[in-house]
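Lecture notes, unit on protein representations.

Consider one protein chain, 145 amino acids long.
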Amino acid sequence: MTSIITHDCDLMTLPFNAATDFTDLADCCDRFAVTLMECNDTVYQMALLARIGSCLALLRPTLNDPIPPHLVEHLTVEKLPDTQVFFEPDAEALCEYCQALTHVLCQQSQLPETEQALKGLLCELMWMFAGDLKAPRWVREQVKH
């Protein structure tokens, strides 16, 4: 009997490439991670892991590139948010960790409990990575009158 996949099929056809802004790639990673955590279909999980791997492969070589001018306003705020950080790897390390976990999960050689824990870790790291990439970087200067 053929099972009908009812997942968000948009995620499998969501277009991205090397020209996609890093903030959009971060959004893709975020969406893939959320869906991965909610998904019980092994085939769909593998497809999501492949999409995560592709996004990470596109992001990694650009992590130290200058911010494109059209994104500066989006990453500028009146006041930087307060953050409480307990784990502070840089973007390159986070990307590497996510890639390594993605590869391990693609091998499908873990016990179900271990696989679930690794998926959770991957998703938490993906959300941290995506959040870091999309976080404000500059404070808008106040013009005094």
